[in-house]
Write a structure and sequence with these properties.
Elements: H1 3-29, E1 32-38, H2 57-64, E2 67-69, E3 72-73, H3 79-88, H4 116-122, E4 126-132, E5 159-163, E6 175-176, E7 179-180, E8 190-192, E9 222-223, E10 226-227, E11 231-233, H5 245-258, E12 265-270, H6 292-313, E13 320-326, E14 369-372, E15 380-382, E16 386-387, H7 391-398, H8 415-418, E17 428-432, E18 436-440, E19 443-446, E20 454-455, E21 460-461, E22 469-472, H9 488-503
Parallel strand pairs: 1-12, 1-13, 2-15, 3-16, 4-5, 4-12
Antiparallel strand pairs: 2-14, 5-6, 6-7, 8-11, 9-10, 13-14, 17-18, 18-19, 19-22, 20-21
Helix pairs in contact: 5-6
The structure holds 2-acetamido-2-deoxy-6-O-sulfo-beta-D-galactopyranose (NG6) and calcium ion (CA).
Amino acid sequence: MSRIDRRTFLALPALAPALAGLRLQAAAARPNILLIYADDLGYGDLSCYGATGVRTPNLDRLAATGLRFTDAHSTAATCTPARYSLLTGEYAFRRKEARILPGDAPLLIEPGRETLPALLRKAGYRTGVVGKWHLGLGRGAVDWNGEIRPGPLEVGFDESFIMPATGDRVPCVYVDGHRVAGLDPADPIRVSYQAPIGSEPTGAKNPELLKMHPSHGHDMAIVNGVSRIGYMTGGKSALWVDEDMADVFTRRAVRFIESSQASPFFLYFATHDIHVPRLPHDRFAGASTMGPRGRAIAQLDWCVGELLRTLDRLHLAGNTLVLFSSDNGPVVDDGYMDEAVEKLGAHRPAGPLRGGKYSNFEAGTCIPLIANWPGRVKRGVSDALVSQVDFLRSLTSLAGLKPGAAAAPDSVDVLPALLGNSKRGREEVVEQGSTLSLRQGRWKYIEPGKGERLNKNVNIETGIDPEPQLYDVTADRGETRNLAAAMPERVRAMKAALDQIRAGSRPPR
Ligand code: NG6
Ligand code: CA
């Protein structure tokens, strides 16, 4: 051993504290990530985005001390495709199965895939999902009475406590890890999306048993006085109580945070609010002038407050990036007579945007996005164009990973924009409504399609038109003037770009 080597060797123990310090610094550079994902919350549904009829003080504070985005998008105007993209960094239109799934659909994400949670886990994060899943479970013909797998635990989550699909779809039970929570084996669950099971009452046959009536669809199995989509029997001890759901999820999320202090954590907290059926807890009775839809927004805000208070109590707030967003735009009547239409008043769920859930217009995918990390996310408002498909590359970049090109094919690292260090997000992004649209900066091209212009059930403009549409969403946020005929060159160029993206021959930018 040379003299130099020898000295270094002898000095190694003395270096240990410095090395430990470096490790600590690395840990401090990798914050906890709390991703709060609301359901069907529109661009105009929070008071910090202009809501009237309900106040959202916790989210308003999060926005006031963080960064509020005005041009952030989910990838699709419905839940399953939006969530698929969020977790995989791949546009959902690439997967024909990625459409609103029934509660007994197989898992949509291949186990072993480099998902957002799987990558963060690789980077040393403890990962958890609490809340709405809606990405399928098992491999088809799920046995709800046995081990339910693959599921969240097979695609990157260390802990999972979920509702399988939606609040309005059977089975109306929580799945904790691989099993239905609270199930009595003597009362097995059976689920069918085809035909009634036995002689159980249904919403269609027994409206007298309902405390909330459907306006369209939703007339099958009755659980907790509400008829749902799909049929189920059994599992009485495991059935959820809609009014308690926000409390159940929040308690579980708080427990996850409390038990994840040894390493950085990633918590994907996907609320049921404000999806139908809207049955918030009684304590929100006076919280809104808008009936259950407004009260569900108040309840959502309360959940956020509880999680933020938990971070404060555990002294984690300074080292936690909180992201708040929604999976798709707003809908007022989504299938239940819950006074949402009658009591809407002056409130505009989509703010200045046209359309809503299911729509090609901007309200379909342009949703609230708030980023907050004290001292690290700049305060203010950002007009950067960002998409949730970018969370994968942006958050793994924050964690010090750079996934290969095969993973997350449509994701762009927009971390500087998410932290407020850059005003620029993406150059272009696809939005999936009934047909596909392409945004390039201020321009929005909606490809032609066939179908009704109005979705009469939900009273939302679909944005479908047999002719191409082109809008300047900076000058004309409400998409009122179709410039396609006046600007055929731009239409041609944007159509060509969209075709390349669809074919996978155009790198995300
Ligand atoms: C629709 C449901 C709607 C809602 C939606 C999924 C009917 C008539 N409508 O099919 O109520 O459940 O699916 O919403 O059944 S999402 O936010 O999960 O995409
Ligand atoms: Ca949704």
